Amino acid sequence: MIYLLFLLLSLFLIAIDHCGVSMGDHLFRAIGISPWSNSENHSGLHFPVIIGLLMLIISGVLLTKHYRERHSKGGRFVLIGVIGFLAVFPYLSSSAMMLVHHKNTGITALDYSQKGSSCRYATQDNVVHMQCQLTLMNYGSESKEVRIEPLFTEYDSGLLASVNIKNEGIVMPRRSSRTYHINFEGNVDDALFVTGSTNIVGVKFIDGSQEKET
User: What are phi and psi of 130, to 5 degrees?
Assistant: First the structure.
């Protein structure tokens, strides 16, 4: 039982939820610790994954050894269990969020997924033109009209992190998970022409005086 609990804890640290974030990241942030060695740029050593993988190897070896003493295919059962858990976890986390927010109609029921989200941009005549692909979820029981703005860091793009991007409005259907293609614009001080693409570290949802960054 101790080996099994140790294995489950390691899987929890490395499991990726439906938003493309490891549960270890959520745990570290909940207790006020950055999951990355370079917290400003979200880069460097990824502590939850490193710790989780070490725990997974140790607990997997111990549990496999224990079961092999009782069954010749014990190691295979452990391996199938690990793969199965990691495969179904995104669906479990999505269903859990839908359940938690099933009566919620506010901005707290909105979420963003890093999976499949990115932006292409071109800068000309002091204006940044962006074409973004965003995966957004509305866990709530009603459709939500909201304004959104992509968030960047200096690590993703020093240019975009300093741009005052104008938010755009969308309508998110109830209990939905969709990929939206949205164009944004923002002004810069220097007359530059730069093109490129970048991942998005988050999204700001704006509903009147309420704001939520995720």
Answer: -125, 135
Domain ranges of the chain: 2-100, 107-213
Q: Distance between alpha carbon 110 and the CA centroid of its chain, in Å?
A: 13
Question: pLDDT digits over 34-92, tens only?
Answer: 888 776 666 678 888 899 899 988 888 888 887 777 666 666 777 888 888 889 998 88
The reported pTM is 0.71
- The per-residue pLDDT for 134 is 92
* Cα–Cα distance measured from residue 131 to residue 15, given in angstroms and rounded to the nearest whole number: 30
Residues 131, 181: contact at Cβ < 8 Å? yes
Strand partners, 123: 128
Q: Which two tokens stand for residue 89?
A: 């976890």
The number of helix segments (H) and strand segments (E) in the chain equals: 5, 11
